[in-house]
# Entry
Amino acid sequence: MTNNAWVLPDQISDVLPRQARMLDSLRRGLLDLYQRHGFELVMPPLVEYTDALLDDADDDLDLRTVKWADAGSGKTLAVRADITPQVARIDAHLLNRSGVARLCYFGSVFHARANGLLTSREPMQIGAEIYGHAGLEADAQIQSLLLASLRFCQVPGLRLDISHARIVRVLLDRAPTLSQNTDAVYRALQGKDTAALRELTAQCDDETGAALLALLDLYGGVEVIERARSVLPNHPDITQALDELAVLASLDTSGVLQFDLADLAGYQYHTGVMFAAYCAGAPNAMARGGRYDHIGERFGRARPATGFSIDLREITELLPNLPATQAISAPWAMDADLRAAIETLRASGEIVIEALAGQAHQEEDFICNRALVLENNSWVVRDI
# Structure
């Protein structure tokens, strides 16, 4: 009988040394970046009761969440599929601050089903959230920090798409005939499915139907905002949403900002500005975020909130391997002087690999370009 104990489930994989080193380097660098911006690190648990992890309005998150009955309490437990709800719980009940809270996090999540054919079911999320400020200033800080994060990661071909959840909500409020088909409308918008959207809006008034169809073509540079003003209804909420997008457009002149008013993934809980980051070579968004002011409601404290999360695992799949780290080879022996020399080198930051008798180095993450050798009764480092 063949032993397949080493085989992993579909779309689940180990992180091997080179990728693990890159992932940890990015993690440490990003957390340092967030600390410099005044964000405090929190570490929620991997497992919680479903009441804390799931939002009744987000069917997609529910489908991606693994659940089971707790043997002790009889309540339903779940492995987190997203860390954002956990951070909202921490802000609402454990910190319970009245002012602004800036929180960041890092950890694995698990999905019962993957988001795409090439994506892992165990993303590694890192992110930042601002709680307690409803103004656009918080969204602007989050946008700037997200761009700084992705530039630190040196992702190729960076593009940040920005949209606004309030625009579609206004249009749907004007179209009661679509109340039973809201999800289908969002799917058609996200898939840019003109035929499906035209069929769904056939019973709408002409202005609303035309506006929903116009969203499919409202993508591109900053000029999209002015085009949207000319083709969308003159409604105060739509005008305010476009004004907010115009302010955010002015914050970065590097050319990476794009606008796509139909990119609405996560619309179930977003309430304002929405971000989606893409890069060359990746079919899926590397990061998503935006404003979700109602996320704390089920914890009894709906605070204004905006933030983002990045899938570091996906990013490391796209980046070239880090070069092997230079190290020093040393013999292994119960020699006091040798051991003292090795500890001195390690204390100074050097990597010292002690060779075992009869075994050649197998590490792919290190290259021994120097050796610790005994000369004139002293241990010294020499180039190889």
User: Anything to note?
Assistant: The radius of gyration is 26 Å.
